[in-house]
Structure to design on (292 residues):
């Protein structure tokens, strides 16, 4: 039976049982996801056996890094992960079952994380942050629902002897390119208060990081304690957003000035040893260090 036929049957049966919500009866085998792996925080179902360790190992190391450096992850958190064989199969499922209205590389919905074996580490990190924020009931500013997960798209690191190390805080080249000539004219206040553009929203999270306030923002978002400020963003800086516009404009000017370096930023990478990471940095360190 072909993949598409299996998904259509799954949809029809779920509909007549009144269980069209994908949370119910996730029969992974009926979707061709016949390989399973259970880790501390993940229950993974994958079409390809090799995807289990790629996704499971990376996300567990990512969670450890996140928990130690940015945002406490409850030990009780357990997320179901479904890894399809290809992006096309994942997107077919996303359209038919999850009611997605656009092409995706990953999706978090109703306590489950869906992706494919072709998805890069940046997307894994981005989409998994949705799961973390959902599980911890984070009190995020509207812009941060996409802006914060997008921050974790660019990361480079390694694990060794039970420890994990990452460098982060880099712009995403394709997002900067998509903003075009309008980048230097963007208003911080307008993005924080009303933008839906993920490319713009990610700029704000990197801005927080560059100015040293990302951890404070995450801590405030955890509790929602904004004091007398209207947003967690303003509470993190301890300043009204309009007073930050000049600092924001300098940040945008720096991005424009370093445009050629930003275009050379490689895709996210994670290595099984410091030696392999060091080798990567020999090839890419000049670019990355120039943007740190």
């Amino acid at each position: 039976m072909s993949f598409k036929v299996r998904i259509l049957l799954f949809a029809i049966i779920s509909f007549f049982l009144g269980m069209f919500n994908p949370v119910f009866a996730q029969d992974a085998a009926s979707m061709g996801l016949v390989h399973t792996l259970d880790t501390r925080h993940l229950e993974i179902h994958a079409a390809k056996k090799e995807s289990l360790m790629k996704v499971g190992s990376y996300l567990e190391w990512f969670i450890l890094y996140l928990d130690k450096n940015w945002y406490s992850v409850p030990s009780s958190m357990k997320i179901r992960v479904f890894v399809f064989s290809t992006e096309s199969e994942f997107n077919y499922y996303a359209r038919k079952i999850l009611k997605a209205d656009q092409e995706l590389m990953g999706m978090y919905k109703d306590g489950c994380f869906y992706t494919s074996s072709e998805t890069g580490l940046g997307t894994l990190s981005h989409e998994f942050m949705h799961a973390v924020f959902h599980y911890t009931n984070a009190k995020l500013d509207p812009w941060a629902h996409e802006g914060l997960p997008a921050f974790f798209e660019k990361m480079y690191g390694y694990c060794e002897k039970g420890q994990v190390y990452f460098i982060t805080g880099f712009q995403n080249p394709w997002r900067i390119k998509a903003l075009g000539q309008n980048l230097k004219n963007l208003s911080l206040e307008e993005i924080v208060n009303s933008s839906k553009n993920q490319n713009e929203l990610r700029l704000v999270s990197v801005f927080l990081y560059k100015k040293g306030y990302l951890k404070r923002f995450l801590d405030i978002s955890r509790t929602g304690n904004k004091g007398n400020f209207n947003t967690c963003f303003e509470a993190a800086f301890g300043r009204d957003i309009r007073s930050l516009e000049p600092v924001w404009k300098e940040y945008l000017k720096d991005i424009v000035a370093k445009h050629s370096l930003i275009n050379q930023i490689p895709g996210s990478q994670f290595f099984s040893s410091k030696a392999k990471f060091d080798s990567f940095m020999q090839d890419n360190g000049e670019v990355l260090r120039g943007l740190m």
Summary: The longest strand covers residues 79-84. Residues 12-25 have pLDDT under 50 and may be disordered. The CA atoms of residues 148 and 205 lie 6 Å apart. Strands lie at 35-38, 42-46, 79-84, 106-109, 112-116, 155-160, 163-168, 269-271.
